[in-house]
Protein: Excinuclease ABC subunit A
Amino acid sequence: MDLSRTMATSKQRAAGRKNIKKAATAAKRKRTLSKLPKSTRSALGKQANKVKRAKAKAR
Structure:
């Protein structure tokens, strides 16, 4: 069975949002991103941009 195509439940989505908020606040507090190597930071930025574009296209 292909699990990547199943929809997340509303509970899972809520938990995901909560986790993202927690991670964001922790990252702000610890300034994790600024301590990462430049290559990793740029890779994360590219990934974020990719997700942003996919979301915009889905609308």
User: Anything to note?
Assistant: Residues 10-58 form one domain.
